[in-house]
Amino acid sequence: MDCERCRISISARLDGEAEAAPAADVDAHLDQCARCRAYQADAGLLTRNLRVRLVTDTPDLVGPVLARAERPDRRRTALRSALALVAVAQILLGTFQLLGLSGAHGHAHGGMAAHLFNESTAWNLAIGVGMLWAAWRDRTAGGVLPVLGAFVAVLAGFSVHDLIAGTATLARVGSHALLLAGLGLLVAVHRRHRGDGDPAPAQTGGDGWSRIGPGEPPEVAENGPHLRPTAHHRAA
């Protein structure tokens, strides 16, 4: 047996693998070869040093990890819950109006009055559903906000006019306070969501590709293509 095959068998024996030659032949060669015995001793020492090491103190990283861990935003949760309650109340108001259970709204009969009544009911239900959706998915609050804001602004103007003209009572106008509460909560939820600290978008060039430095992984701009074309090359 040559020394190379013997040393391969020694390495396999130390690693617990199948030897390249019968164990009896390897042992017989070791009895006659001092160089292979020296290799066996050095390899065995190296293996023990790699597998058995002194226990060293390691830093306790529990505190720093927990300190940097994302914690639930209780204020954000409270705002979303309050908006959901207002939304449910608005939906119930529209439902009561639809069923004729709301004395403030009542039923309207005949012609244009009936149509206006149906439009008012549809608006109450739609606004309630929109606020409920924004409470569940707060990133959509910015989309609901312009619609509700414009509706409340126009409604406020008509309410003031009707109060002055005496065509509406103070109690009837006060029933719109639910919309004002919903608008305020919607603004707060939207601002809280924007304050989460979303990462800034990558700097891009005119072609929509993000500009990266040497050794950095390629990233695609938010509005750019999702896959890098295989034939796309940059000038040196």
Short recap of the structure:
With 236 residues, the chain is an all-alpha fold. The protein has nine helices and no strands.
Key features of this structure:
single chain; 236 residues; mainly alpha
Mean pLDDT: 76
The N- to C-terminal Cα distance equals 58 Å
> Which bin fits the share of residues in helices?
55-70%
Structural class: mainly alpha
Helix count equals 9
Give the strand content.
Answer: under 5%
**Cα-based radius of gyration, to the nearest Å:** 38 Å
Number of strands: 0
What composes the largest sheet? none
Unreliable runs: 104-109, 197-225
Explain what you see.
The protein has 236 residues and is an all-alpha fold. It is built from 9 helices and no strands. Helix content is 62%, strand content 0%. The longest helix has 26 residues, at 74-99. The two termini are 58 Å apart.
Question: Mind sketching the topology for me?
Answer:
Elements: H1 3-14, H2 23-32, H3 34-51, H4 62-68, H5 74-99, H6 111-136, H7 141-165, H8 170-174, H9 177-194
Helix pairs in contact: 1-2, 1-3, 5-6, 5-9, 6-7, 7-9
